[in-house]
Amino acid sequence: MTSEYCHCWRQAYVIRPLSFSTIQHYMACGTSRKKNDPFVRSLDTDFHNWDVPFPAVTICDKNPLDEELLQEYIDKVWPAGAPANATRMLQWLATLSFRSIEESATTFITQHDLVGHTANDAPAPALDPKEAVFSIVQRCEAAFYDCEWKGDSEECCDFLVPVFTEMGFCYAYNSRHAEKSWPWQSQAQSELFTEAYIHETDSKWSFMFNSFRNTSIIDIYIHSTEEMAGLEQSAQLSWDHRVEKVSFSVKHTYTTEDARQLSIRQRRCIFADEVKLETSSIYTYSACMRQCRMQRSRSYCKCVPHFYPKTKGYRQCTVRELECIARYAAAITDVSRCTCELGCSHTVYEVEKLTEIDSSKGPVASNALETEFVSWPMVRYKREVLFGWVDLLVSFGGIAGLFLGFSLLSGVELVYYFTLRACCAAWRDGDALRRERAERLARPKPPYNLSLVPWWKKPPEPQDARPLQVKAKDLQPPKYSPPPLYTQYLP
To answer: Region entry Disordered: which residue ranges (predicted)?
Structure first.
């Protein structure tokens, strides 16, 4: 592991595909961090009682266009004849990313027959790119068939839903961030997301799909259902149809609730309900980074690219406005400008095995791809506070009890003696206290020997416990007269 991963974990998260070893390295990297780390990490092995969610599988075709739908849309928008590069621009919009914006935006924006001279004469795809993409991409039923979930045959379009990512248009299974509505949505497809789980007794822990696009490269992203495929993650597999099965393992790390007593800076993670995001109801690192890029896009260009979800306060860019995004793409995607931390509950999926087709038994290309757990998850990683406020109180109490004989009960009694007991005594015995004080002030003061002669030379004379009674005639000087009603001598 190189030292570049020790700067911060958001850098480690972006430099390469996020892996569990990268996260663990960040959490423990640096000698000073190890010394000041307030957490202890342990293994949780009670795997029989776990609810294990199946990950989200995001399927991104490098060329998601449907040729027939594309031609129909072009004829509809430009009935008199499509301008040059119309097909290229629509394909560019379907696979839009920050890199493609930076590389190709000026190519299409300078052609007025594609984007218009002004907003009033701009064609439909230039004003609403997202709606244009929906009109030209492959429908689910034309892209996938014969899907299986845990070994049972299922309808693909009941599971795979469209999703716009920072790599373009994709389909996703078991993703919380998929599109809520789309033009070809059926009645059976509900907007309410239901997370898929596996159980130890299931015959298979896998999801399988078949693709009609056997000549296209398809990127496969396996991630948590709360996360979203984006710039923070690279594809686990660029499927060229020579692999028929992807086996992955899961590494789940969670932080106990007692860590809430620490600040975010101390624990270096954020609980799901601790920070409210504009783009997601649950805090995750990818959602935070996505919102950061949206905010920077809005700050620079007053709009965001259409692959971001429609959010209140964020307007989606027209094709002409993507020129501004291209100009500031480097600043928008700069991770050092975003202050995001990983979630306190985080799951990482790592590919353990790729099973290729046995060429000796049949064709060298497969239309089916199965994603499965390599084994039942048996370990979770738990982060607990090593030394909290309660531990600190107990430690101080033990030290005070050992060396001072002091205990928590003694402290309570001390506070009680000077507060509650004093107030109650003043309220209940006020008259007796005032009378006692008056008697004490009226009592004559005893004589004091103020001589400066050392005791070793002349010991002090023994004094009577009773105050010295002196008559007026014995006073010196003889003209001294005591105050009225005061017959006792005061030295």
So the answer is: 464-491
